Each structure stands twice: as C-alpha cells, then as structure tokens.
Amino acid sequence: MADLELSHDAALSAHRELHGVANDLVHDLRSAVPDTGSTSAQEAVDSWFDWLSVTSGAVAGGMRVSAQEVARAAEILGEADGRLAHGLATTGVQVAR
Amino acid sequence: MRVWDRDHPGVCDLESFDQVLYHLVGRVLPDLAEGAERADRAISTAADGWSGRSADAWEDTARPRVTAIRDFHDAAHVGAETLNLYLYTVASIKGRSTPALAEWQQTTLDLSRAEDELDRVRADTSSTDDDRWQALARVQRCEDDQRSARSCLDRLDDEREQADYGLRAGLERSMPPSWVAGGGTLTGTLPPTALARGTHDIAAWARGLPDGPQGDAALRWLATQLSDQDLDALLAACPALATRLMSDSNRQVFGAEYPTLATALGVVDADARIAAVMSACASMSPDQLADLARAWPGVVHNLDGMPLPVRIAASRTAVRAAILDVEEQIAGVRRQTAAITGNDPLQVAMRRELEGSIADLQARQGWYGQLLAESSDYWVVGERDARHTAGHQVVLFEPDAGRFGEVVGDVQATSIGILVGGTGTNLKNMPDQRDRASEFVKEAGGGLAVIAYLGGPMPQNIATIAPDPPHGGYAEAADSAYARAIAPHLAAFANGVRATTGATVTAVGHSYGGSVVGAAEAAGMVVDRVLHVESAGSGPGVSTPQDYAAPDTPRYVMTAPNDPIIYAQGMSVGPLGHGTDPNVLPGITRLETGRVDSTDPHSPLVQGGPAHSGVFGTEGSDTKPDAWQNIYSVLIGGDVTTWTPPQEVWDRGPGGELRNHVEYPMADPTFVPPTVDVP
Question: Does A69 touch chain B (CB under 8 A)?
Fold first, then answer.
C-alpha cells in the first residue's frame, strides 16, 4: 500500500481557496449584452455571452466539486483515524484487564 | 434594437459595447487567469500534504478542471479580441458615415436644385443655347458628385457587412462547434449555475431540449461540460439522453469539431482506417479524447484504432441506450401478449412464446444493468498485490449484430489476450467467457489483460441443422459461414487493439473459435501469437500458413487425446469444415494438454469429451490442468510444455492373441514433458 497521509489544515485551506476561486469565476453578463445594430451580429453576440456565462458557471462548478472532494477526504480520513484510535484504545483496555 | 441600413451603416450602441468590453477585459479575463493560478496553487498545497491513492485520484480530476479554466480563458480571450476589433471597426464606420451621409444629402440637394434650374432654363424662351448647355452641365456635375457620395456610403455598407460577418465567424471560432450547432441561444437557456448545482438541475434542462439536430447538439455540448461521473448520473436519471447521444445526428458538427477524425472515418481499408484514426487521436489531449467519448459515443465506442479507455467510456452510454431500447421492446411484446385474449391451443402457444421472449429480453436487460453497475476486480501492471476494483470495461458493444467485447484486467497491460469462444457462445453467456478470462488475469497478478470477444453470431449447436440461409441445410458447427462472417471484424478489432496498446497480443480460439481466429488471420489479422485450443480447424480454406496475412506469426495448438473435435479437424467439403487440421499446420507448435491437476503427477489425463472445455479447468475447482497452464504461458510468455505423441504398444492378451493399445507419456507420473520458451 502506498503511504497514506492527509494534512487536515492543508485540505481545509485548499477547500476554502477553491471555493473562493469558484465564486470569482462566475460571470453572468447576459443582461449586459450590447446592442450591435445588426440582426445577424446580435445573434452571434447573444450566443457568445450566453456561452461565456454558462461556461463560467461550469468551470466554477468543477472547482466547487474539487473543493468538496478534498474536504470530504479530510473528513473521511479523520473519522477513520478517530475510529481506529478508539478501537485500539478499547483493545488496549481489554488487554490490560 | 435599431438596425443599421444603407444610409446609416454605423448604427451600434458603442457606449454600452465599450463598457461591457471594458468589463470583459478588465475583470472577467483576469479573474479567469488568476483563478486558474490560484486553483493550481491550492491543489498543489493540498497535494503536498496529502498522499496515497485517493490523493492521486483527486489530483487527476482536479488538474484537468484547472486546464478547463485556462482553455476557457483562452477561448474567451479570442472572443474578446473579436468583439474589440468589431467595436473599433464599427466606430470607424460610424465616424466616417456621418460626413459621408451629409455629403450624399448635400449632393442630392445640389442635384435637385440643378435639375430645377435646368427645367427653368428650358422653359424660359429668352434663354440662350449657352444658358441651357451650362444648366445641363451643372446637372451632370451634380450627378457625378452624388454618385461619388453614394459610392462612399456603399463602401461603408460593405465594410459593415464584412465586420458583421467577421464578428459571427470570430465568435463562433471561439465557441465549441456543438454549442454553435445547438443554436447558441438554445444552449444559453441553461442557467450559469446549473452545472454547479448537480444532476437535478441539469437533467431538468436537458429533458426540455427540443427534438432534432439542434437539441442533440446542445446535449452534446452539455456532455463535454460534465465529468464522467456527472454524465453517468445524468444518463441514469434520463436514459433517453443516452439514446440521443448515440444517434447519428450532427455529423457536420462532428466534422467541424474533429476534422481529421471525420476524414479518417471515411477511409475504406480497415488497416488504413485504424492508422488514420490513431493519427487523429495522437493530436488530441486527454481532455479532448474524454470529450469525444462523452459527446460522440456512437461514433467512437466500437471504432477500431480508438484508445481502449475512450471505447470503454463511450460504451457506458451505448449500454444505457441499449437498456432503454430493450425496455421499449419489452413493452411492445407485452402489448402483443395482452392482445391475445383467447385460450385456444394456438393462442396459448403464442402467448407462451411471447412470454419467453419477454423473459429473454429481461435477462438481457439485467445483464446490461450489470455491465453498468457491477464492480469487478483487476490487477495492475507490475504490482502483484495491487488489486483494483472498477466497473466492466466494455470495448465492443453492438448487440443487434451479436458483437460484444470486454476487457478483463488493466488496459495498460503489456500482454493482451483476445479469447474467442466456440460453438454455443452468444451474448447470454459472455459472462462465462469473462470468468474464463478472469482466471488468467488473476494468475498473472498484473501485466496481462484478456478480452472476452464475440464478433457475431456463432453456431449454437454441434449437430443442429441451421434453419436459415446462408447456414440452411448444414450442421451448424460444421458450417464455416459463421467464421467467415466474423473474420474481418475480428481482424480489424485485433489489429486495432495491437496498434493502440502496443501490447503483445495473443489471439486464442477455442473450438469453433479456432476456425474464427484462422479465418481472421486469412482476412488480415496480424497479432504476436495465435493459439488454437481444441480447435475446429486452421480456418476455412486454409491449407498452409501462406494463406495467412502474416505466415510467420508464432502459432500454438493443443488438442487433448480423444476430444471429439478430432473428427472435425481437417475435414473440409465445400462450405463445411474449417480448413487444415491445426495440429499439423506447418510451423505450429503442439502443446501438451497433460493432466487434470498440473500440480499432481498422479492425476488423470485431460482427455475425451470432457476435455473439450476441461482444458480451461473444471468449474468450481481451483485445480488447473497442464493445458490451462500452457494457455496462460502462451498469453504471458515463458515456458510451455510440448506434446509428446503416444506410443503404440503391442502385447499378447490372456489367450495369447496379439493386441495393441496406445500409451500416453503423461499417464506416467514420472514423465516430465519437454518445454519450449514462448518469447
């Protein structure tokens, strides 16, 4: 088995930072689309601002998922460590008795 | 919106355009660039304090997300430049159009006055010829001036048209083709935060996409925005979307998005097509290949020359679509069953038959479900103790044509076997073929993967007379038509696997599968090793290795003593039979089938009817025969034991009569068979 290690602080720091990045990535500019004065150009510009807005949401979503994953990993490993410590302590008490 | 016209080519809300562009360049693009840097640092921070497989797995998914931000930034940058150029051009047109319009208006007014003057002079009886000539000349000068002013405005009109065209083309270039083909505004109806909110919101949007190419394109765009897990969850929630992704629509979009690959698909020769597909894939990043599997599963899931991981990912969508298809078939048969209400013998029989069909379809649906949900273990290259659990790895899924293939083991293994079953193999029992493959993979503990392969309908019985042409009138297992039909498919499949993986590929044909492998070799299959196991023949029409695409391929054969297959080997009459007896094919190495338990020299010989499948071991028993060990060694390379022919022994019976019998050397517990190395 490969070495297993997770710094809880580093994980939470990454979680916070990635969430912050995600919040800064979302830009919904659809209400600010300029009037081009051309029907065909307007369709293209509308579509482009739609794409920009939706894709910004998509990449932000990806960051949020990564943030949740690292936090969840820290939580799971912490829980496992706690349970294991508890189990070993109990065993130690039983052995002592 | 006020739209520009011939006299006003500079119409545009330049001020708001400038403001949004300023926001774009000053805020959005820096946020994206900075966001990617911050995310990169955050991932590195977490990765520095986190080790283990989960850390590797997390980093493997997180880094591509940062790459996605950078790609998005670059594309948005291209779009912003296009908008900036448009703004500059239209501002310039606007600046020049005002005086041009004024000039044209002035010249029009001048012309009108000159024409009035000409009319007046002509009507004036006191005017001279010189007066009339001068008035006419003035009109002509004014007409020239007006034409000149008009042409100046017309040039600005042309500039504006070109600017509009350039804007559309530039912006479309910066967006994914599937977004553009999805109608742009249609894809734009997805709320920006929906992709971050999870499957429910995305599914609600995707369900509402209209039927037709535009809706399909929008869905394909969506598929590229999701991770494999998210797409899986979406398709589980809305299986109908899998059918849409599998459809043949939007081929033009595919051509625009993957021009080299689209050209490769049109190559007729199978090997040349494999090379062209590989060349197209070589220029794609891992993310692009992943997008390909998500958005175009119907194009790539069975495509020879495509990397196996892409085929595996795309096949999940194919399987989901097939589940829905079977569900609809079941509903159709149920309606038919319900329509039969009478109880006369014919109706009862019909109802029973339909109920049987439903049961078959349900079984198939259950198997498809297992392919998606069931986990399976495989062993990683070079790490004997590293067992990985993953889903089924389907690399060929064409159930309507009876074709299926599944990799057991690590697709990066250095040795890959392709296991072709014999008579009776069909979609229903492919899990058994998989189990057979799994035994070899487990034994290897890494370094070996085996593909359980079915390239089309196989004979289902040895003696049954096949009812339908082209097999009609013959004992099914003797009919070579099945092998001939599968041959080109297996050839292309195996050649594709060998080319894309670089692994040492061994084609193993069991029973009728031996004839299939031989036919595939004759049809162009070139692999590193071929193994005939209790094989029906060297392939229809094959009499010498020169009939194969690669005569010098190392070939091995094993036939257990008294396996009834010996009555089929070498028997060829017209369409019946499977070519030369593989045991005597020039250059082939005949392997020992040996004893039932390779670890016990006192165990009985593998022989007779049970040996036909017994060479793979006995179900429920952990012991493996020598034959199995030899199959394994051919797959992975190393020593194999070779066949020692039996001795004919003559002696006298109790009454003194002369009698003979054969003695197999392996029946002697002290006999040690010779070995050769499989390089």
Answer: yes
